[in-house]
Amino acid sequence: MLTAGSYCESNSSISRTWLDGGISPCFYFTLVPTILLTIAFFLGTVHCIFYQKYGTAMEPKFIPRSRLYGLQLALSALLLVQFVFGLVWRAATAAELPGYAVLYGGFSVLAWAWAVALLRVERRRALVMDRTRGHSAALLLFWALAFSAENLAFVSWYSPHWWWGLEDEQHQVQFALWLLRYAASGLLFFIGLRAPGLPRRPYMLLINEDERDVENSGQVHEPRQSTWQGFTKKVRLLVPYMWPRGSVFLQMLVLFCLGLLGVERAINVFVPIYYKNIVNDLTDRKSWRTVATTVCVYVLLKFLQGGGAGASGFVSNLRSFLWIRVQQFTNRVVQVRLFAHLHSLSLRWHLGRKTGDVLRSIDRGTSSINSLLSYIVFSIFPTIADIVISIIYFITYFNAWFGLIVFVCMTLYLTLTIIITEWRTKYRRDMNLQDNNAKSKAVDSLLNFETVKYYNAESYEVGRFEGAILKYQASEWKTQASLAFLNQTQNLIIGSGLLAGSLLCAYFVTEGKFQVGDFVLFGTYIIQLYTPLNWFGTYYRMIQNSFIDMESMFQLFEEEEEVKDAVNAGNLLYQLGKIEFENVYFSYVDGKEILKDVSFTVLPGQTVALVGQSGSGKSTIIRLLFRFYDVQGGCIRIDGQDISKVRQVSLRAHIGVVPQDTVLFNDTIRDNIRYGRISASDREVEEAAVAADIHDKITTFPEGYDTQVGERGLKLSGGEKQRVAIARTILKAPQIILLDEATSALDTQTERNIQASLAKVCTNRTTVVVAHRTVNTSVLSPPPPPGRHEELLLKGGLYADMWLKQQQVQDSDSSSDTETKDRKSEKLQPPATSAGH
Fold this sequence. Notes:
four-stranded antiparallel sheet; ABC transporter transmembrane region fold; alpha/beta; disordered C terminus; Rossmann fold; five-stranded parallel sheet
């Protein structure tokens, strides 16, 4: 019959922490639930209040579907049931129920129930300003302490008051409950590190990510059937990165690492041989000196080899350490070369690129080259060498049957691995395609954050992003399922070979043809061989994946430069700055000509304006003159030199451009202006800003010239960005100036100030101006023929209409400025009632 006892057993006290070689149960089962309940209640309550006050309910479609989250809830519920069962069972079976057992059961139930509540709150609500992902610190701390508390029980391994001895039914049940708590709390902690039930990104970032339709997004080229097609070409691209040219030190490192690779192969042969010798020496009762020597040599070899196949041995670790420098060299060379190649591509390619897609291709491609070199040099070749060596050794030392078994198993293994891996390549490629599409369009959506807000399209963007993720996950499932099938096939072949060889070797041992050590040698060697062979499929898959990941990067390398320097092209010999367009034809797309038989001349020091409607080709002329494109017909000359025959760098060194759409670097205003001439001093930068009428504005900023302009200069207004671009061009001090709507984003007064500054800068410089409005100077105005301002006004037509409308707008602006000044003057006059003060 159960009776209510004291708080602790009769032979214990809560003040005693150590009892008979272990922690006192009374102390342990009081401390643990108290700490857990304290953390769960106080930190959890604060956590819940914070989420309710500052959080927002997540839309169901953003909450990931996760079986692991269901497992988290199931394990928590299992622990709750376990604590209740333990308390009930002990009350029903024990003659006396100590008070600490009741406290342990009750506090634990409350603590774990509160932990479940925290888990569900995090599942349904998200902090609006949360910049992290994963579970809260309170929940992770609770799980970590719960798991640590169960591990603390090992300290009492030799104590008779604990259940380790399994002496009676009570200890056996307590041990079973402890095993359940240990496994459940450990799983909860490790699963909690992954946080499967929560979004993988901050919620506010997640709801703003999505894919956006991009022109020609549905045009997907049919992938090649095998990643090994074009293997020679791929290897030819990789050769420069395999051998670090120009660095004798790195070349010596490569040779030394290859030498260590050969040492590993030899060690792999001698390890099982010395293990066999130890068994035979012990069986034959050899002298201690002989056995000790053999054991020491075996341990030394094992130390050098590591945990089988050189996975973590001294030689392997030394090789990996020395290879870091070579790997860094490869990574740097690939990225720098690709970055330089991207900058050499034409404007047409950059206007049509997907930034997110390019960045993903670069990241995966560069990392894949390192992985590919490592797998081929240090995994595939050594594994093949080990297979060949093992077949020769088994044939010579045992007999041909063992060599045949190894050969058949290896052949089947490698053949099926290659066939199945080739078959599942299409799933991996499709998964990469879906991943690239989702990420590139997510980047595009974030870059157009303001547009999304303008049209209240958040929900639309989020819904489409979820669709992209579902497509990616469908491809990912096929990839993982085919991987599981491959692994099972490999395990079946390995198990069959090991069974056949072991039975044959055991038979020869029973017949007296082999020693016991020979059986040990076969088992050790074959398992040692199968260990890297088991990874061979992984290595081959990783090589396949590396080739797939590099395909996009290779495509970037294969992009041809549309605008190239002619063979033996010389530098532009600038003299006076005379510009000539002679019968120029150009079109962006075949069948739609932008410029047709355009001819005009800009004399040295002259300013010519290109005026016309949008789409008439004004900005195209600027791009052709800067040689962003080559003309399809006709010729463009500067000082009598065909610009297609000179080096692009020398041509652009003499030309300064103020574009219509100014994009700044995410840097300071000072560095953005200094980009016009990198070597310019701070004083020269400020003088350029004064000339561009932005110096006074910059000085009003808290950080002055050190003000960060934000991504693409979004922290500045349109007019401020344009004036920074003008200052940048002024600092470059080019001989030829191209102004593409240089004052389009400015107010009337600032425009006049800038025009005055530009007039000074353009003095004695050849200048081409693009404008939607007329300019009182020499004009090229398609479709009307070119001519002087006065001549075009007398002819009437489109130019005269544009001039009339401009004059009306300017008169209106002048009237507005006058009224504004009058109002300011009136405000400055003191009121009549305050005249005497």
